[in-house]
Every structure is written in structure tokens, then in C-alpha cells.
Amino acid sequence: MECKTFDPDGVGVDNGTYFGLPFDPATAELVLVSAPWDVTVSYGAGAAYGPDAIIEASTQLDFHDPLAPGAWRRGIATADVDYSLQEASQRLRTDAARVIDHLEGGGSPDDEYVVRKVRRVNEGCAAMNANIESQAARWLDAGRIVGLVGGDHSTPYGLIRALGARHAEFGILHIDAHCDLRDAYEGFEFSHASIMFNVLRDVPQAVRIAQVGVRDFSEGEAALAASSERIATFDDLSLAAARFRGETWDEQCRRIVGTLPREVYVSFDIDGLTFENCPHTGTPVSGGLTFNEAVWLLAVLARSGRRIIGFDVVEVCPAPDQRIDAITGARILWKLCGLTLASNAEKAGK
Question: Distance (Å, rounded) from C-alpha 22 to C-alpha 42?
């Protein structure tokens, strides 16, 4: 599977793939799908350019990972990026921004001007979801594991739907500053702030969502999380309080992972990390997990005997004069790729 001319210890190759790897999606075990889309972001835009920025930053990464040594050799391939999504995102973002400005200025959501634009955005987001679900289905049906690189946090919906159609039940490890449990936030049914609400509504196979590091959410979201047996909340303040009282991070990770079933999808919003890791993300929030805390949580998940069936990395917003967001995104993506392959080693007979 590995190209003979590829030197993993050599200079990173700028070949348009994540990590500069030479693998073909037709034979690799893991396929990365890109979703350059950020129509409904409610504060800072730019996540649509996350996939390209992560591809660029990822070629500077060295391949040895002590948590999953050599796992990448089983194949991490990059699916062709559908840049028509980015073009549609740019067009629809203008409509969405006007709606948001109207509402933030005290305008009515029932104004005909707003209703038309919301309808157009919702139709465009539904088409994006269908696109991602179709891409995911193609690779899943070919026996591949699929990871998604966003884009904003609305983009994994299609992948999660595709997994729901192919698994009887699974859990979601959701690392984020936000609960994303809003019903059609700002009128947008597939808002980045509504992804987990939509999963609860539409994907019954997702039997448990463990939300980790959340620290900025509404009273309505808190009430929904408290009332749903499918949600386990490990909010940032509670995690900090447990540490202050002497519980180690490893113990907390085991407690978090213990709430999840045998098969797990990981949804990783980069703003779940502390601010210095992602200063340009669309909705940054003080607090959060350190980079190593997040990686340790993923490692505990992989070592627990659970199988990671897919994942996403979203809300990475590159900045023209700083690369830290893309660098962090590339390294989280690398850890997720390696640990996902490691957790599937038994299935693959490796």
C-alpha cells in the first residue's frame, strides 16, 4: 500500500493530501473527507478554509506517535475535496450574515426578507448534508473508516447520519466549548450550534453523547442535557472542581469513557481546547482542555477496548499571520487518525 518512493523521515511532501501521505482511498483503511463550509457561524467566520490550512500545516508533522506507533502505515488517504461546497458556502454566508445582523439589531425573525434568506440557507445546508452523507456512504460501503475535516460544526451531520444507517448503536464523544443543543439556532435548522440537537432528533442509533469541556451554553440546552438519558455532561467547571478535589485527569477520563458504548464516534470541536491552542476559532471561550488532556482522553478511549468508528475535527479557523490554529488542528487530526486505526486493529486483524 505504501509507495516505495515515500520517505516518512524525509521532507514533508506538499502533494495536496493530509500529512503529505501517498495512500489511495481505494486501498487505505482510513479516508479523510473535507467539508469546506461555514455558512451559519454566528460570531467569527473562516472555518471553511480549515481543511486547506490543515493540509498545509500537516506536512510539517513527524510521523512517530508513541500512542499508536506505525498505525498510519495501514493507510490514511485524502478523498478529493469538493470545492463546490466552498463556493456554495461563500454565497450562502452572505445571506446568513444578513439574517444574523438583522436579528442582532432587534429585527423580527418573521420579516419576509429574513424568512426568504433563512429558507435559502436551510436548503443549501440540506444539500451540503446530502453531499457529505453521500461521500461518507461511498467509503463506508467500501469498508473504509471515515474521518471528516471541517468546516464548522454543522458539517459532520451527514457522516453521523451515514454511520447511523450502518450501526445498530454507537456513542459520541463530543469535545467542545458548547453543547450545540439549540433547536434551529437563529432560524437555521442545520446551524453549527444545532448539530447535537439534530443528532438526538434524527439519529436514534446515537444512544449516548458524552459532552466534555462544555462551558458556554444556554439554560434551554442545560435543561435538555439534564433531562435526556442519552446525554452525559462533563462540563468544564465540574471537571476543574474534580481536579481541585484531587481526582486525577486519568481517573476522570476513565469515568467519561465509561459512559460510552462499545462503538464510539468522536466529534472534536477545536474550541474545546484552551484558548492559546485556537485563538482564531469562530466562537472561542476561556477555559477548556489542554492539548495533552484532550489527547490523553482520546488515548484512554482507544485503550478501553472501544472501537472508534469515525470522527471529525471542526471549527479550525486559519489566520493569515498566525498558524497556530492550523498546527493544532493538524496534530489533533493526526492523533485521531492513529488512535482510530489502533482501536480498529483487532477488526482489521493487525
Answer: 37
